[in-house]
User: Fold these one by one.
Assistant:
Number 1:
Amino acid sequence: METDFLVVGSGIAGLSFALRVAELGRVVVVTKKERMDSSTNLAQGGIAAVLAEDDSGTEHERDTLESGAGLCDRDVVRMVVRDGPPRIADLIAAGVKFVTDEKTGKLDLGKEGGHSRRRVAHSYDLTGREIERALLAAVKEHPQISVLENHPAIDLIMDRKAKDRGRCVGAYVFEESGKVVSYLAKMTVLCTGGCGKVYLYTSNPDIATGDGIAMAFRAGAQVANMEFVQFHPTCLFHPRAKNFLISEAVRGEGAVLVDRYGKRFMDKYDSRGELATRDSVARAIDREMKASGLDCVYLDITSKSNEFLYKRFPTIYEKCRKFGITISRDPIPVVPAAHYMCGGVVVDMYGNSSVDGLMALGETANTGLHGANRLASNSLLEAVVYAEKAWRYCRDHKKEVLGRETPQVDDWSSGEAIDLEEEILINHNWDLIRRTMWNYVGIVRSDKRLKLAKERMSDILKEIEQHYRDYYVSANMIELRNISLVAMMIIEAALQRQESRGLHYTKDYPVVKQEFQRWNIFARRWGKQLWDMDCIKQKRI
Ligand SMILES: Cc1cc2nc3c(=O)[nH]c(=O)nc-3n(C[C@H](O)[C@H](O)[C@H](O)COP(=O)(O)OP(=O)(O)OC[C@H]3O[C@@H](n4cnc5c(N)ncnc54)[C@H](O)[C@@H]3O)c2cc1C
């Protein structure tokens, strides 16, 4: 299979880029499951930009920088904030229906934690679904774009003869028939989203296994800021409820967090109580759970009437009711959950990674916008802004990008591999990784637990790499291999940050240290084991 642009992923980043770049050449979008399966599709709150008359770029920049706790790249923040309003206009032109004020016809703007102004364009609590719907409809109409569902990319194909350890020339893709096919492209663009599935509890969909970050790392790309994992404080805790968020708005309406005896605990940790910032509430819940040894705490909104709750939170009300929880009567069992990866593949202002022929966009990328903590609703914004910048780069360098020769590459070889007869070998490790990450590398960290996690993860990685060689690949194994590597990146990055900043909190170094106002950049060490990774350079911010 040969194409001009190979886009891996069909969320907001992949689709926005595909729609633009299709004017330059043929685009193939491969996506792991069905085309809607993405974090984009679950995004609730909305997309931030300076859209109100009483708002300004300076204020949006300031809010973003404050949230980022000293690790944002100021130039990137300025560029993303500046490009926000025209990109929202592009989304509207592409068919996205944001909610508008009935009288004025202007966008109805929401205000979220950390924003000093109303600046979040939304489609009620289904913003992501509306964006995904509109972009997929536009892509469907486009004769230059093909979207291939159930086509997970396994690894990048590298032309190792090219200079500087090689150029990316496409990806090996696992087709539905079970065959692995080489997809060759002039430019390969990773838009595979985040990696919430590394943790036992996550708000992310099943596709979020950090595939793009792992593939890029294996190919030699630089990766940074992986220690900054954002946890959402309240995800529904129920054996059958997967990744369902109980929105902050419930606390906004007076819900209190209680332990199993119905006793409030937030005041012990933060004078703002239940309305403290996400990271602070998540940390308090984590401490309560670790101290009691229990699996969850409870969010109690029983002070409100049944009528009020049904009207104000229809989706939450119904979802909980399905699991036998009447929220006007029963406290809701909740746990914090991994929500967003601030770090990722290091890219420049146009989405180029450190590997020639390889770009990364959206949650997979580390652009410098989020620093040590993402400001709410800035991630959808980052994805659309960078999709446009990446297209601009390809357009301005069209001759060079499209003029690249496609080299001869080796077909995928399974070597001596045999069928895996015991799926338990894979499933056991899934569970082990996610539990280890949750218990040892979660919201509150310590050197002791991080070191233990590193030891265990090295053994797991060794075993998985062996399985990968011994058995035919499967979709399950591809993901397991990726989450184990991404887990190791998070552990290493956390070990190297001996301070507490933004989303990274460690008991052993509980304060911010000036000397750590830097990104630790990781890359694989050629000739060593993959998991034997190290920080190759630091970027002072
Ligand atoms: C519940 C929830 C609510 C959120 N609310 C908001 C919000 O209100 N505002 C905001 O700004 N952000 C929000 N976020 C974050 C935001 O939704 C994501 O950061 C953003 O949508 C990421 O977009 P993306 O295109 O990078 O990745 P995604 O939308 O996750 O898309 C990734 C795509 O890559 C595909 N893929 C993955 N691996 C492979 C592979 N190996 N081969 C082929 N395809 C692959 C997936 O199938 C998918 O199509 C929320 C996230 C969640 C989970």
Number 2:
Amino acid sequence: MTYHGLAPGPRLLVLGAVHGNEVCGARAITQLIEELDSGALAIERGMLTLVPVTNPLAYQRKQRMGDRNLNRNMAPSAIPQDFEDRIANVLCPLLDSHDALLDLHSFHTGGLPFVMIGPQNNQGELEPFSRAAEEMQLALHTGPHRIVEGWLDAYAQGVQRRAAAPTQREAAVPRRW
Ligand SMILES: [Zn+2]
């Protein structure tokens, strides 16, 4: 669902339920669509695209993923191998045609909402980025309790550690009798 303001402005994409069992984003987006359609809210400028359920297979199954975790690997593929490959082929052009992404996830424990941002501007291989200032503005406008930075580097280090020592984790698990 895409809404346009009459004045030019940023193009924002908002995704819910990338993980199918995290439904708060889907609920919030559905409510927002109702408010926009009823005229209770209006887009003044730019463009807003709302995707309440990004991974319908996972959502339908009420589980984190369909065939695999969309959040860990998302790139277009000429020959899709699984359901998430096909989602990526729709989602990647959609991402390309927007300036910013707000990706809504849920936690299964309580607590106040927070925003994860990053990386910092860089020209590296993992995730080159040049919109850190705009991203911080977007994060601040969501009115968060906390903003978390640097998670991508921490995640990449964790992946490297597991790849380097795949048996260490198992060795640390206490034996069950
Ligand atoms: Zn999630």
